[in-house]
Amino acid sequence: MAHLNSHKEICNLFKRIENKFPVDQWKVNNLHVWPYIRIKLYYYLLNIENTQIEEKSAISQNRKKKSIKATTKEVVKSFFDTRQFYKSLKSKEVIFVGAHFHRVLQNGVYFNRFFDPLIEKYNLKERAYTFEFQKYYPNSFNKNSVFHLANAIRNYKSFKRIEEKLITKPCTANLINYDDFQEFLNNELGEGAIFKITENDLKKWSKKIINLTPFFEKIIKKVKPNKIVFLSYYGFDDNYAFIYTARKMQIKVVDFQHGPQSNIHMAYSEWNKVPQDGFNIMPIEYWNWDDNSKKNIEAWANKTEVKAKVVGHPYIEYCLKHEKVENTKKQILFSLQTSPLELLTKEVTSLIYNSKYHWVLRLHPRNETPLIDIKNFLIQNRIDHNTELQTAEDIPLPYVLTKSILHITNYSGCVIEALTLNTVTVIIHNVGFEMFRNYIDDKKVFYVNRTSKDFESRVLEILSLQTEKSGSLDIFYDFNPID
What we know:
By secondary structure, the chain is an alpha/beta fold. It contains 16 helices and 18 strands. Strands 7-6-3-9-10-11-12 form a seven-stranded parallel beta sheet. Strands 15-14-13-16-17-18 form a six-stranded parallel beta sheet, sandwiched between helices. A hairpin with a 2-residue loop joins strand 4 and strand 5.
């Protein structure tokens, strides 16, 4: 994971780009394209950009004919399914937009950790829709108001594809000095166009967004929401299309914090050149867990119409109000990243081995390593006797944190949740130090680099200072998302 050590360099690169080029003016088909370029470039530089391999296959003429017939049937069905979807929509005051990975299994139903606590607390079951991208769980909380948006979009695209092939729409582009920008990237990175942001790529991308706007216009006209709230505004083209359409129709678009929003997260930080009313594929308001996250938004948004506010963490409040949690703290929580074995170094395994406490190794929701490989690693390093593996769905994070005397992590967003629950955190990776610099106070959040010579003794010293009980919690916010 050495690529993650370059966050500062990435921040500096974006500053130079935004100071040098008129990125706030770049538009294709009226879409502000800089947020799309910037976030795509950010993940490319982190070396975690997902790429798709185009598969080429030889298909016989007979199979082609069958495919066309099957597609024709699918198109007809998709047309009527889309009409039925529109017909089923009713007027609501807010639309929440999330994905299956924001849900946890809670009392037999899949519970959205951010939206559903608010829906329950303020009795919004009849006043809000929840639209789901990607997977869809039929046994979701408030399931009568949950829609499988990915399926509805797929149906719409299916029958609209024919129309798009028959009708050629004009394309407008305002990309001042864009050739110079690409040359700049080529000089800086060697292969600036490798992540597909040529002018032609942007035209193709904008066409996908524009082609979806009628779909979302129909939804908004039917539902008539006052606001649309997203858990992560970036990452999906369908999200960009929904946001652009809502902004164009003067509906408030909100991003609800779903993870750390530190000063090195380029989707939320260091925007140096922003239009007065914000980019039209980005939210106009940000709801944050804590004051540090809010300040990070305000650092660049305070000269624009973009707003930020602290609303707390609804799921923490929900868990503490609905479940009785033991006060005894006899365990240490280690929140892991997507590739845990790369970060379970010999220094860390030695610390686990020499600790008298039980360790909970909590896997990332998008863990990439097979459980059997992790279990074998624990056995090989003789730490299987005092550790347990825990997935994100096994037990809600607030319960684990409340029962833990110490939280250790490399750079997990659990730092903010631990701080909210008065559980002391030790950050052990330099990336975590960069991400949570503003939180480190040597009282509730410590930094001890895992490569330092006194790593183990320092962590054990911090551990020895912890008591069995935490102070009182004051984390409950009176925040109704409808208001």
